[in-house]
UniProtKB/TrEMBL annotation:
Residues 23-269 form the EAL domain. The chain holds residues 754 to 1022 of 1022 of the full protein. This is Diguanylate cyclase.
Amino acid sequence: AKASGKNDIRSFTPELAEKARERLSLETDLRYAMQRQELQLYYQPIIDLQTLQTIGHEALLRWIHPERGFIPPDRFIPVAEESGLITALGAWVIHEACRQNAEWQRAGRRAVRVAVNISMIQFATSNFVDTVKSALHESGLGVEWLELEVTESVVMHDVKMVTERLTELRELGVRVSIDDFGTGYSSLKYLQELPIDTLKIDRSFVNTIQKDAQEAPLVKTIILMAQSLGLNVIAEGVETIFQQEYLQSLGCSEAQGYYFSRPLPASQL
Ligand code: C2E
Ligand code: CA
Ligand code: CA
Ligand code: CA
């Protein structure tokens, strides 16, 4: 206890106490945010690089707090994960994304996929697949239009659980992509064995595609690898036409990024 004495004192500095208070109030507010309809899904188009048509949207959560204004998901998703709120929040996101997509299809729009981000904690819960089924059932959305995005770290978390879960989803017919690919430590062996459909190349790699830097070897390698594994590949964070053309020349099938469109509210799509 003596050894940690120093740390105990440090943990009561006003700064850290303020941080803890801030986190708690964020958590409390998040509990009500869903009921108060402060949460909204924005959608970023996913572009087919051969036709340049939109073939899907990634749903991205937005929280407009009545006093604090816009709070980015990178700030409140970790709070939701630590407090357990992520299960209810994540279920809401899946239901809302399916509902919106089905509504667009019923209104006569050309059918496109919707991609939903899934947190590791949400993915690991035992009733996760039931949540997916109920969202599809309630919305009436065809299963082929739903894609789930899990990060690479999820995949390496608990290989047995993840394999079981992914197999269930595959049997259901839901597509799964590995998000932020290249930032984790996936073993090629698992990548080959897991029932996944898509690799999403992380923005940090796409960012290395620059006019003056002749080559982007990692981007090239990931695309070649995805192709040889028979996986679809989406480049994230495309911001310039140069990046688009480079990716097209490598045979990358899909892309998203500010160059095509920022994430937008449903009403502006
Ligand atoms: P992500 O899944 O990697 O989402 C991509 C992020 O990159 C989004 O940030 C998007 O707005 C941003 N982005 C897209 N194109 C560009 C570009 O060309 N340039 C730059 N600089 N950025 C671009 P956002 O919406 O702030 O989301 C951040 C992260 O929060 C997401 O990263 C995801 O991990 C998480 N997140 C968002 N919505 C949800 C959700 O519904 N559930 C879960 N579990 N996580 C979510
Ligand atoms: Ca994502
Ligand atoms: Ca990503
Ligand atoms: Ca990310």
